[in-house]
Each structure stands twice: as structure tokens, then as C-alpha cells.
Design brief:
39% helix; 4 helices
Length: 214
């Protein structure tokens, strides 16, 4: 519950009082990290800068940067855009976006499961903000316990990753390179080169596979 002068800090871009939560999950639909203390007005990038230094897949709300792998903007991305005959990825960047979307779809599934388990988050809880932030962490812990101990529940797979919130998926790789003092521009260029290297490897694998099939 937010009152007084603090209200403006928690208003998001839709002018709704909200709380920014940044989670990281693995591909078993378990939370690995949750940051729940940011105001609704905080920009995605600011929240992400306050997160752990890992290798994340991030959605279109974030810029591509070292350790945070974002999709290409202005290119087909949502899974439904690739459904149907003749709609397979046609370019290296489309292939990258399709595979990126397939992986990040996990975060959409885990949010669907989380909201169905803990309906208290469907409306604004009448608690002080500190309590509400801790409530998110407690429920994330309960979610992980249920995933490990009560796997009889089945939840439908989400078909697309539209309307994604501030989200990131923790990949099974950490950046162990030595810290280097760089300008922001050099960091972005390095991140883009890293992404293009991944794209080239993916596309070469596909072309090699197609050549062997012919």
C-alpha cells in the first residue's frame, strides 16, 4: 500500500501504481533469483543493472549488452509469426530471434504458473511495501518447493511470448572474463559482435544440416 508523496514513484507508464519484479529462472521453471524492491516507475534497464552479474536472455524491453542477450528489433520474433507452411526463419537474424523466443517463452510460462498458484498478486495487496516485496520472495520460494515436491500438477504451455514483462532467463553459462574498463559505446559494440558470432554459428549449423539432407 503506497500513500502520499511516494505514490508518483510507483506509477508505471500506464499511470497505475505497481511494483517492478525482475526474476531469473532456469528451464525447469524454477526461480533462481528474484529482485522485488523496485518502484513501478523504474526503467527496465535500471532494474537490470541492480541484478546479479550473470548471463541472461532478455526480451525486447532491454538493449543488447554484454551478459544480456536481447533479440533483434524490427525482425520477426513472436513464435506465432513462424507458424504455418513456408514461415520458417529465412535469414540468420530471424533464426536467432526464433530460437531466442523459444527459450524466453519459459519465463512467460513460469509467470502463468506463479499467478495461478498465488492469486493474491492479481490485485494490489493491502500491505506496506516492504511486506509486499518480501511476500513476492516467499511465494517464489514456495513455488520452487512445489515444483520439486509436487510435480503432479500440469500447466498448459504458453504458445507465444507476447506481452512479456521485465524478465530474464538465467542461462547455463557465466561470463568469467576479467573486468575491463570500457566506454558504454565499446561495450555495446562488443555485445553486438558477440551476438553476431552466435548468429553466424547458428546459421552455419542450419546450412550444414540442409546440405547433408540433400
Amino acid at each position: 500500500m503506497i500513500r502520499g508523496r511516494d505514490v508518483s514513484n510507483y506509477c508505471n507508464r500506464h499511470r497505475i501504481i505497481s511494483q517492478n519484479v525482475l526474476p531469473a529462472c532456469n528451464f525447469n521453471l524454477e526461480f533462481m533469483y528474484v529482485l522485488s524492491v523496485w518502484e513501478g516507475s523504474a526503467h527496465d534497464s535500471k532494474v537490470l543493472n541492480n541484478a546479479l552479474s550473470k548471463f541472461f536472455l532478455v526480451d525486447c524491453g532491454f538493449l543488447n549488452r554484454c551478459q544480456f542477450l536481447a533479440p533483434f528489433r524490427g525482425i520477426r520474433y513472436h513464435l506465432q509469426e513462424f507458424l504455418g507452411q513456408g514461415r520458417d526463419p529465412k535469414t540468420p537474424n530471424e533464426l536467432f530471434n526464433h530460437r531466442h523466443a523459444s527459450l524466453i517463452n519459459t519465463i512467460e510460462r513460469i509467470f502463468g504458473i506463479f499467478k495461478s498458484q498465488f492469486t493474491i498478486f492479481k490485485t494490489a495487496p493491502p500491505f506496506p511495501f516492504d511486506t509486499q516485496a518480501k511476500l513476492v520472495l516467499v511465494c517464489a520460494g514456495l513455488h520452487n518447493f512445489l515444483r520439486k515436491e509436487c510435480r503432479s500438477d500440469e500447466f498448459p504451455k504458453k504458445q507465444d511470448n507476447e506481452g512479456s514483462s521485465s524478465s530474464a532467463i538465467l542461462a547455463n553459462e557465466e561470463d568469467d572474463s576479467e573486468p575491463i574498463i570500457e566506454t558504454q559505446e565499446k561495450k555495446r559494440e562488443h555485445a553486438n559482435q558477440w551476438r553476431y558470432a552466435i548468429v553466424a554459428n547458428m546459421w552455419n549449423d542450419v546450412e550444414h544440416f540442409n546440405d547433408n539432407e540433400q
